[in-house]
Design a protein that fits this description.
The chain has two domains: 4-140, Alpha-Beta Plaits; 179-207. A five-stranded mixed beta sheet has the order 4-1-3-2-5, with helices on both faces. It is elongated and about 115 Å long. It has six helices and five strands, in the order E-H-E-E-H-E-E-H-H-H-H. By secondary structure, the chain is α+β, with helices and mostly antiparallel strands. The chain has helices at residues 26-42, 63-73, 107-115, 128-140, 164-167, 173-204, and strands at residues 4-13, 45-51, 54-62, 79-90, 101-104. Helices cover 42% and strands 20% of the residues. This is Sensors of blue-light using FAD. Pfam families: BLUF. Keywords: Membrane, Transmembrane, Transmembrane helix. The chain crosses the membrane at residues 179-206. Residues 4-101 form the BLUF domain.
């Protein structure tokens, strides 16, 4: 049976933090893009938090794949001072729908830090209890980098006006019969008149 594990580690960014674009620091945005692609290919999930130049990351999946990824992260020059806060087997994934969920510094995290006497996000001072609190917070906060599906506006209703001729219902078979009888009688009378005139014309030598 495949063993699932979770690693929670922290590190410090070695790059200068730039103004966020679409809610994400540019270098962090590139890290997210690559992490999501690689994690999807390796069947890994997790979460990344970045605030006050510090990373707080959770990785979950098969033990050999998680440990292999962490060894790769140790070589990444974009961060330093890597420290594992937790490494443990798990029965189920905390972030099953996220190849790499991103959580930015927000008021919820600021309040949590204030409750524990922190003026800024400093994961190197976290105890086990605070690590668990941060994990719980991460699970409930939405990811601003994930696109949302907006409902499509419904097509406007168009009022179609019919011509008077189109609005009139077709005549029934019963209503057509009285109209046809006079027309037939007129046609027969006209033919009889034409025949009489033809005979008269022949007698007078007109035809």
């Amino acid at each position: 049976m495949t063993e699932l594990v979770r690693i929670i580690y922290i590190s410090r960014a070695t790059f200068d933090t730039l103004p966020a674009a679409d809610g994400v620091e540019p270098t962090v945005s590139r890290i997210l893009s690559v992490s999501r692609r690689n994690n999807r290919n390796n069947g890994l999930v997790g979460m990344l938090y970045y605030g006050d130049s510090c990373f707080f990351q959770c990785l979950e999946g098969e033990r050999n794949k998680v440990e292999a990824l962490y060894r790769t992260l140790l070589k990444d020059k974009r961060h330093t001072d890597l420290k594992i806060l937790a490494s443990e087997p798990i029965k189920r994934l905390s972030f099953p729908d996220w190849n790499m969920k991103y959580v930015p510094l927000d008021q919820s995290m600021s309040r949590l830090m204030s409750e524990h006497g922190f003026e800024r996000f400093d994961p190197y001072r976290f105890d086990h209890h605070l690590v668990e609190r941060v994990m719980q917070l991460m699970q409930g906060v939405p990811d601003p980098t994930e696109p949302t599906t907006e409902p499509r506006p419904s097509a406007p209703c168009r009022s179609i006006q019919l011509d008077t001729a189109e609005q009139a219902p077709p005549a029934s078979e019963g209503s057509r019969t009285p109209l046809l009888l006079p027309a037939i009688a007129i046609t027969i009378s006209s033919l009889a008149l034409l025949i009489s005139l033809s005979c008269l014309g022949m007698q007078l030598g007109w035809l």
